[in-house]
Structures are given as C-alpha cells and as structure tokens.
Design goal:
Pfam families: EAL, GGDEF
Structural class: alpha/beta
Shape: elongated
Protein name: Bifunctional diguanylate cyclase/phosphodiesterase
Radius of gyration: 36 Å
Number of strands: 16
Mean pLDDT: 84
Oligomer: single chain
Number of helices: 19
Keywords: Membrane, Transmembrane, Transmembrane helix
C-alpha cells in the first residue's frame, strides 16, 4: 500500500529510524569506553578516537534528520489525501471542492466566462441506506459515481459533498446544447435503476444550479445558494431541478430568522389563540369554535401560521407550542356555554409523540373541561404515518369521550380503508372543494359523496372555508348543515360574555337566511 494512503511508516522509514538509533547507541557506547579507559583504546590514540566519534555523530544526525523529514513528508501527503479525497468514491471531498470553486470563481471573475455549479442530491438517501444496508448503500454510491462521471463532460470537476450529495463544477463552454437539455438528460440517465449485487435499486434526484460570477464568487455562498436551489427543486416534486434566484435567499433568511426566534417568542408569550365559530345552519346557532394559533411579534407584527408551524415541527418546538395551545383552548372553553365545544388542531408530529394521550388526559384534568367539549382535528397524513399506533391512539381518545375530526378530508390518501379501522367522529370537508362548489360540478359531486360517506359511517360532517351565501346554500342542499368560514366570522380573540352561544347579530342574521 502506498505511503500516502497508509498511516504506518514505510520499510525505508523504519530502517532509517533503526539505523540512526543504533548508530547513536554505538557512539554513546564508544564515548563511555573512552571515559572509562582513558586516553587510549585498543592502541588507538585519543585524537583519532575523537575524530571517529565526531564522524559517527555526524552520520547519526544525518540519518535522524532524513528519518524525521521522511516522516513529515509522508504525514503531509497522508493528511492531504485524507482531507481532499473521498475514500469511498475517490472524488474530491467537500474541503477540496470548496477550494476548486474558489479557484473557478477567481478565474471566471477575471475572464467573464460563466461557470456552473450543479448540486445533485439523492432524495431520502438516509432512508434508502437504512433500508438496503450500509454495504449496499456504499455499492449504490460507487455505481452512482461511475455513471455520473460518464454523464458529464471530461473537464468537469466532481466532488462528493455529502452522504448522497454531489457537486459538479462545469464550465459553460463544456455544456453540450442548452443547459436545460443537459440537466434534463442528466437527471433522466442518473435516475435509471442501478444494478447492485443483490437487487435493482431506483433513486430519485433533486438538482440545484448556480452560475458564477452572476450568483456570487464566495465559494461558501455559492454552495449555500446551490443548496437553496436544490431544496426548492425538491419541494416541487420528484426529479426536478431549479436555478437559484434572489427570492430563494430571502426565503431562506426569513426561515432562519423564524427558526432562531421561535423559542424566544414562546418564552416571551408572543403566541395567542383566535377562535373561528362553527355554525349550525338550520338553527343559526354557534355550536363550537376552532382554536387557531397566532404569533404577534413585538417588532414584525403578525406572522402567519403557515410561516412557522412547519419550522416548529422540524425543530421540535411544536411539542411545547402544541401543548400550550391545547391547554389554553381547554381553559378558554370553560367560559363557553355548556353545549359549545372547542376544536384544536393537532400537528402530525404532536400526534405521534410518545405520550400524546397522557398529555391530553392531564390537560383535561388540570383544566376541568368535560371530554364532550373538546374536539381534536387530525389530518389524514398524521394518522397514516403509523396506522397501527394511530388506531390505538384514536381508540384511547374515543374511550375518553373525546371526538376526533378528520381535517382536510379528501386531499390526502386515496385509500379510504383507514375510515373503517380508525375511531373518529367527524369528517371536515376541505376548503378547496367548498371554494369551487358553486362553479365546478365535480367539486359539488365530491362534496355530495363525502356527505353520503359520513352518513354511511355514522359520523358528523362540517365544511370549512365558506365565504359566500351561495356556497352555504349549496352545502346545505347537499346535506352539510354545519359550516365555518369568513361568511360567518373570521378568527378573532374570544370575548367572554353571557348570551346565546356567542353569536353576534351579524352571524345570526346571515345564518337565518338559510
């Protein structure tokens, strides 16, 4: 094995070390004899003895120096190879790729000729690696590398910058045809199944592209922007690619700010609950309120839930935030009429926490709310993450007397067999169907089908997103008599007062029209 790839010393290095040590020992031995025997030894005059010892000392010093510098040179080569090349593929490692990007940026800023950095990522590689085993995962990476080398021009530089992430540095003059056609062809070829030793493995890719000097000359910034483009491509679906544009940077900066501010906002008490009424059309009576979280930042004002809920789920902050929402909603519900409930949205991450049912039980105990006055809204996605565990959780909630509504029904899984396996009490028709019910006959048919399905299952039905009187009329005609939406009230802080179900005169007036 070559010295530069092996941290152990070479035979020559070991020989030099042993020789220099032996000579040094010999010289010390002679010096000891001289001290012990006086001016002469074996008939050799003292002056000659000194000369011999000086020569031997010089020889030993030279050998030791050679040994030392051989080791330094070998260590430097080894460290260079360890830090600049990927062991598995032989491609440039991330530090080396950063250096090459810096060199390319300097060159392109001087010549003006564009250079593209293509960031290629194998989607969900960790899950693939876990599923097929690490040895097969390594085989997949080697096969992917071999094909990637064959798909890009010879002058392109390739680096492995993550477990399943690769970077290709490609001069503009090396692109065959248009960049769009090259990327499309590259993705098609790289997504062809890979023949491993045990099976055929398919992969999907996401690709992000930046151009230098247009998108910057700082290598770290270029890599960050290529990754932003890659994330944008991944959000668009399987096998997509995206070119970086400035808006991606602004979105990423805003996301970073949200992530860094969430914990502080929670500790500071920025969050509050607004409530949107749910109305029974035949009687015009409010029967419940949906609790909706709001974040009012002291400097930036109101921040929409869509901006921070997903980030809270990814960072783990959804746990304390979701528990606070549940506790506050249950506490507020004590001030509502006895026949009025409060509905709380449950995040998929929150639903699958270790002791979700225990948290709900403790909240009900501490707030004193009756089970019949609490409704939990859970999406199809949350229930389908782990069907067996979800079925157990829903059964436990039902045994406690808590109603569960399937939120955004009709937009998730096409396999409706879970409706038979799961315990729930209500289906909530998604606003996407309601918004088109008076303009699209297909949406009307879907709504009618969902209403019929709810009756067959013996569960309640509610429609969200009702904004016009015509929509409310058509929903009631289809058999859906419980609704919520801007027509009947926007989300607002709950005003505790006595009266008939908290319905304002405007809410009752609109409801009575139907």
């Amino acid at each position: 094995m070559p010295a530069v790839s092996n941290p152990k010393r070479t035979p020559v290095f070991r020989l030099l070390t042993i020789a220099s040590s032996g000579i040094g020992s010999f010289v010390l031995g002679i010096w000891g004899l001289k001290l012990g025997l006086g001016d002469g030894f074996a008939g050799i005059p003292a002056a000659m003895m000194v000369a011999i010892m000086a020569a031997l000392c010089a020889l030993a010093a030279a050998g030791a120096a050679m040994s030392f510098f051989a080791g330094v040179d070998e260590s430097a080569d080894f460290v260079f190879k360890e830090t600049h090349f990927d062991k598995l593929t032989g491609l440039l490692a991330r530090p080396a790729m950063v250096g090459k990007i810096a060199e390319a940026a300097c060159t392109t800023s001087r010549t003006g000729e564009p250079m593209f950095l293509i960031d290629i990522d194998i989607d969900r590689f960790k899950q693939v690696n876990d599923a097929i085993g690490y040895s097969q995962g390594d085989e997949l990476i080697r096969a992917f590398t071999k094909r990637l080398k064959a798909c890009v021009p010879p002058r392109a530089l390739i680096g492995r910058i993550g477990a399943g992430e690769f970077a290709v540095l490609l001069p503009d003059n090396q692109v065959q045809g248009t960049l769009e056609s090259f990327i499309e062809r590259l993705i098609d070829e790289m997504m062809e199944p890979y023949e491993l030793s045990t099976h055929m493995q398919s992969v999907s890719l996401s690709v992000g592209i930046v151009a230098t000097p247009k998108d910057g000359i700082d290598p770290v910034l270029i890599l960050r922007r290529s990754n932003l483009a890659l994330q944008h491509a991944r959000a668009s679906g399987v096998g997509n690619w995206s070119v970086f544009h400035a808006e991606m940077g602004r979105v990423a900066d805003h996301r970073q700010w949200i992530e860094s501010e969430l914990h502080t906002a929670f500790e500071r008490g920025d969050f509050d609950l607004h409530y949107q009424p749910q109305l029974d059309l035949p009687t015009g009576r409010i029967i419940g309120y949906e609790a909706l979280i709001r974040w009012r930042h002291p400097e930036r004002g109101m921040i929409p839930p869509m901006d921070f809920i997903l980030i809270a789920e990814e960072t783990g902050m959804i746990g304390p935030i979701g528990e606070w929402v549940l506790r506050k909603a249950c506490s507020d519900a004590r001030h509502l009429p006895d026949d009025c409930f409060v509905a709380v949205n449950i995040s998929p991450v929150q639903f699958m926490t270790k002791d979700f049912v225990g948290i709900v039980r403790d909240t009900m105990t501490s707030t004193g709310i009756k089970p019949s006055r609490l409704e939990l809204e859970v999406t199809e996605t949350a229930m389908m993450q782990d069907r067996d565990r979800a079925a157990i959780i829903l059964k436990q909630l039902a045994d406690m007397g808590i109603s569960v509504a399937v939120d955004d029904f009709g937009t998730g899984y096409s396999n409706l067999s879970y409706l038979i396996d799961f315990s729930f009490g209500k289906l909530k028709i998604d606003r996407s169907f309601v918004s088109r019910i008076d303009t699209d006959s297909s949406s009307g048919a879907v709504v009618s089908t969902i209403v019929g399905l709810s009756r067959a299952l013996g569960v309640s039905i509610i429609a969200e997103g009702v904004e016009t009187e015509n929509q409310a009329t058509m929903l009631r005609a289809a058999g859906c008599e419980v609704v919520q939406g801007y027509l009947f009230g926007r989300p607002a802080p709950l005003k505790f007062r006595t009266g008939d179900g908290y319905a304002t005169d405007e809410v009752r007036r609109v409801a009575n029209l139907h």
